[in-house]
Specification:
Four copies of one chain form a homotetramer. Chain A is of the alpha/beta class and 321 residues long. The first copy, chain A, folds into two domains: 171 residues, 3-Layer(aba) Sandwich (Rossmann fold); 126 residues, N-(1-d-carboxylethyl)-l-norvaline Dehydrogenase, domain 2. Chain A is 49% helix and 12% strand. Chain A contains 15 helices and nine strands. In chain A, strands 1, 2, 3, 4, 5, 6, 7, 8 and 9 form a nine-stranded mixed β-sheet that branches. The longest helix of chain A is centred in the middle third of the chain and has 29 residues. Chain A is elongated. The interface between A and B is large, with 69 and 69 residues.
Chain lengths: 321, 321, 321, 321
């Protein structure tokens, strides 16, 4: 059903029929931020929901029969009772929700606002509280899983909410876009969990690159060494699932010229969120600060910013001349 | 059989009987380095081998019927055709094998020398080559698994050898002391694999401590956060098997006052071997250098040197006043 | 004159007489931010200027005959043609100038706004540009020299301005509060120069602490070693002027229990500004990131946050148990 | 006198005449290690001493009338009562003094051994103690000042000695090769002072590079910023004497394509000595470890290992694409 919808846009005259399928109680869903991630997520949500859907991208409306246009976040908020946003940075989230002609200007009572952007924990909490103060419900639900997961509908959502009811309400919609939804705690907890995981991910990846590079320099076969590490105390996702040394794992980005995967510039962005959260909470980071420095440095080298973040192995090893 | 042997020493007069059981071709095994690790390993090897065994510790001879005394490494080498050593540092390995009254002075042709110490890769290679030059066979086989593994006989051995035959020959004996024996490559490869794994282990542990400490400071429940990380891209042994936050895992050293496990001072020793190998091979380490600095710093704080290396969480978090 | 003024407040009736001394063309000076730094600076500026002075602190008005009260930044801006501000953080500068009842609301054409706060370069530039857009003149002029320098009137001002005229206009007033005024470049250049100096200062101080601690651990007399360094290529302000080892220099904060001087928490604040500027400009920092981590860590240890930043020596050396 | 000697080798027949000038009491000086540094030092020492001189380089003997050949360190020790050595690494010092046919084999009672190599503090102490045990006198006297200083005879010597008499005895000869001789303490203290200074030097240089690079990225003129730093608390040798940004200082290596000066590979060698000393003394280094990592990394980039160590600015800034 989904795939056919995607292949051949439903003719416009078919719409009334589809519309009739909606149960009278079907909520209208609004979606803002149809970028690479968002477009795939919105497609899952729209087709699986079979309820009125509002967004701001004509192409999406052409491809999804039950999707209609909103002229602005305010207009969208006026039409929808559930709003999902997937935006690049803190400033976008603030302006889409609270700026001129933003969601706030059209917000209805009890509307459920689900922000799946990865942004500053402090900004996420602030925006959610303001929306709640205006009579809406708000949760933060950042994503893990990347574009592949968005296409496959297998994303993980880390959710922060004021209470269990808001979490349960959001879960219904998040499960249409992913397969793993977990409540992390109060407002902002989703953001906090996301950046803590990515902090450890970045450290593990650089550490894996250092350990394998040392092994190679000492004459070990990287596949043999990885095999040992993966059954020992050094094992981690960066070694057993996305190994940074080309040809150790056939499907790892490193084997594909460090293409696909999670771009260094995006990891650097998340490490910036980590730095802000650490500063706000007066939390000392040692490796975290250095890893940010390393990704800052390599992101200025050639095209490394656009490569999967496992390219740090190349940054380390290519220097061996 | 093992346990009863340990409980009630076999009376001396029982020895001749036992001795008769040996097949005429049974090689005599020599063992040097009966410390906490070595004693347990030697007990497994001695009892499972049921062949003549030579060592230098009276207590061991009292507890193991087929064990007899050697007066020195040279005397032991004169009696044994298989020699296993488990020693603390490079200098000990060099002197036990090549020093005055060392193994070299009693070495027989084709004796198989298995060094299970964790020492400098360059020293390990040098000593092995000299033994081979003298007509013996030599492999490096450092251990992973700790004292618990030594007692249970579940150690992992990472083996470096000149050829497959020497590896196969050593495997027979190593399997009596552990359950996982893997060939890593040529001479020194066992040492190299061991320190590469421990480098990544140290980095992962400090990274896990930083990520969980940040999460706690941001208001997350460490068990909830660990649960998320363990099913996400941040997962690693340090998070899912030996979590550094007390009470996240019931059996982790952190939950037991950071007792048991792998002492910080031993991790610091291994990181020193990493630093030497990196210097010799001109390999840049970024996180590796910093992690060594951190363990150097905390090893001078109170009793942290004697605690499991996951105590780095305490070093980070206790500062939060 | 200054000192007597400070000792015995001029009776209120004396004011008209003093007032008559003003040349008709004497500009009215407004001052906002009479904290430890600001109060001393304002006293120099007020007494040396002998022109109408406006501020918001009654005590200051009691102690300075030509000082009168302003009810708000807007009221002050309405009365003054030169405004000097010394505020703690970016948010304060933004709200004092551009917030409700802020300077903007009373601003006169061509008023010269001199902000001597140390804040984010990007915020400084933004606020200055907005003030200029409103018809005023604005320069950033952060301070080096500390409270001692503020009392003695020996401060250094690092100035960023749109053009030389604005710099020259500000210089007249800055020279009444300090003895060294230097133009660093365009708007924000003063802030940039200040944080670049303090970045290097922090790195040099931690480096000096590491080098001297290593020397002491190797058996050297810290005074002998400092003497050698101070005539060699390692010499720096942190070694020859504010040595972190107690008793090497009689007047260094370290010799006075790390009291006086520049508090660790203030250095940490400046390193946060460095981190923001580095992120905004995509500039990799290696030592800079680690030094921030170190000051974050020690600022959570006992009372180190309140001690001179040379206390990092204690943080390193006290661990030597 | 020196220069003419260098320009036109003294004809052999001149030797007897020169020889006659020697006071009967003139000690014979032996010199081992006539590399780039040593050759220039030996030339000063030989010509200024006007006493019998023994070495192992024919070219030197051709150029210096009173220099005669020694066939080995042992032969040289047999002829000389003062021995100066300038060797690359710990292993060379150990073998030249204590190896086969080494100094030890020809050593005379009370011979003064002056080792001006920069090597491991622990090795330096060990070799000196063994020589003293054999009846000789020994001091460590590593050098600061580089090849330029060796040619000009303006070197600084950092001396470690058992007592003041040995220091005074060595000073006589060191002053003929340099202009600044300072006693740092007991045996090994010269080595310790040298590496502590170079540790701080390396940290200051990388810190200066980071601070100036940040300033440039923020739009500052590096010369203006350097001028401010050099009169502020950030001032250090790396900023005011060997600034790493090209064209800030006309005579700095950076302005000459990072040629001349102190090669990165030599700084990396000294940082390796620092790491060994820190490990032996259980001293935590934070910036020191990271700076070694940075020089390890850049030393593998193109020809940076051969460039002045201020090239770290290029390593940082060139990445800004």
């Amino acid at each position: 059903m989904l795939s056919s919808t995607l292949r051949t846009p439903v003719p416009r005259l078919a719409r009334p029929l589809l519309a009739r399928q909606y149960s009278s109680s079907a909520p209208t869903i609004g979606f803002i931020g149809l970028g690479q991630m968002g477009y795939n997520m919105a497609t899952h949500l729209c087709t699986k929901s079979q309820s009125p859907f509002v967004d701001t991208v004509a192409k999406f409306q052409d491809e999804n029969a039950n999707a209609t246009a909103a002229s602005s976040p305010a207009d969208l908020a006026d039409k929808a009772s559930v709003i999902v946003t997937v935006l690049p940075e803190s400033a976008h989230v603030r302006s889409v929700y609270l700026g001129n002609n933003g969601v706030r200007d059209g917000l209805r009572k009890n509307t459920l606002c689900i922000d799946s952007s990865t942004i500053d924990t402090s900004v996420s909490i602030d925006v959610s509280r303001q929306l709640i103060g205006l009579g809406a419900r708000a949760v933060d639900a950042p994503i893990s899983g990347g574009i592949m997961g968005a296409k496959a509908g297998t994303l993980t959502f880390m959710v922060g909410s004021e209470n269990a009811q808001d979490y349960d309400a959001a879960k219904v919609y998040l499960e249409r876009m992913g397969k793993n939804v977990v409540r992390c705690g109060d407002l902002g907890a989703g953001q906090a969990a996301k950046i803590c995981n990515n902090l450890l991910l970045a450290i593990s990846m650089v550490g894996t690159a250092e350990a394998l590079n040392l092994g190679v320099r000492l004459g070990l076969d990287p596949s043999v060494l990885a095999g040992i590490i993966n059954t020992s105390s050094g094992r981690c996702w960066s070694s057993d699932t996305s190994n940074p040394v080309p040809d150790v794992l056939p499907n790892a980005p490193s084997t594909n010229g460090y293409n696909g995967g999670f771009k260094s510039k995006l990891m650097l962005k998340d490490l910036g969120l980590v730095a802000n959260a650490a500063k706000d909470s007066k939390t000392p980071l040692m490796l975290g600060g250095l890893v940010e420095s390393i990704y800052r440095h390599l992101s200025n080298q050639g095209d490394m910013a656009e490569k999967d973040f496992s390219v740090v192995y190349k940054w380390l090893a290519e220097s061996q001349k």
